[in-house]
DNA sequence: TCAGGGTCTGACCGATCGGTCAGGCATGCT
DNA sequence: AGCATGCCTGACCGATCGGTCAGACCCTGA
């Protein structure tokens, strides 16, 4: 064998992304990844210090974008925060569908790992922003439902192209989010309180 | 020791429910459950044929209610199907929060087990009903986001009482669901809840 | 008193997990 | 030629998994 180092490194990363997305982090063994690449388990552990480091490198780009979004959310309040959070998260979720799928369901345990120390706080702030920083239970519940639902949808609808999924999700979020108290005049949606 | 059989049986079931909800099915060992109950792992396997049977008995009530909802959804179309699906699933998710939490994230693998053979089809039909049986991508995406988001919210908001969570979710769903094209003015259907 | 059945347990099993280690095999530099 | 370095591997490790099994400990009815 003896491929160029960067090549094998990338192949392992790609294989791990594929397997993690389907069977989860804990449900995927290093043996599984090695088999898919066509190398030995020891080779996987030659390129990555351990299983956790493999996951961390896999998630790094998505986490970087999430951090950026968190920074942009910094001083915003009310409807502005809602809109930035909605656009930012929908965009992130669509772009990083596979990474989202990896985290799906294993959130609590994975968050214990040092590489993901801040994700919990960031996602809390994101949820808060999407709720327009309102403390009404309805607003907070709606924000959580939407964030979790978007994640799940992106992980599941792998066959829908980005350009179709993104606007559909954004339309949904804008319709579903609880409008904040200070609401500048908004063209009334047709089916508002009717049914 | 030698408690009454039904007592230990129930304690194991309750402990398993608690642990599964927090660390997931695969992430919880029989040893963990036994430790929480205060008995040996062999005792757990005396009361339940295997780990899978323990999970099946745990999920049985929730699955029964899900089946009922599926039956009620049978002949409905359009807005009526949407409303029944929304009310039925919100009610189910709030009542069986812990069971929902167990399934969270381990859906694909758990569905392979015979006890849950039909859940995938039922949840597909449920999603279809919530979309008003529309084939527009926006409607299907919205339905999936809502179902997944509700599940996640119920699993996470353990501190909110049922009476507060249920109406908040229902309001959100009615606001977020894509209205179907043919919407006949429907009087508030007095759902005969328990048939 | 004793037999039998329900309840429970420690010891054990094979399989698999993440991870370690010494060494094989090219390749390139001196 | 000799040596160092980078890439890769089989063999192995301790831990833990789900599950089995023979037997101990009650309680009850004959």
UniProtKB/TrEMBL annotation, chains A, B:
Gene3D superfamilies: Tetracycline Repressor, domain 2 (1.10.357.10). Transmembrane segments: none annotated. It comes from the Bacteria. Residues 29-48 bind DNA. Keywords: DNA-binding. It holds the Pfam family TetR_N. GO terms for molecular function: DNA-binding transcription factor activity; transcription cis-regulatory region binding. Residues 6-66 form the HTH tetR-type domain. SUPFAM superfamilies: Homeodomain-like. The keyword Magnesium does not apply. InterPro entries: Homeodomain-like_sf, HTH-type_TetR-like_transc_reg, HTH_TetR. This is TetR family transcriptional regulator. It comes from Micromonospora taraxaci.
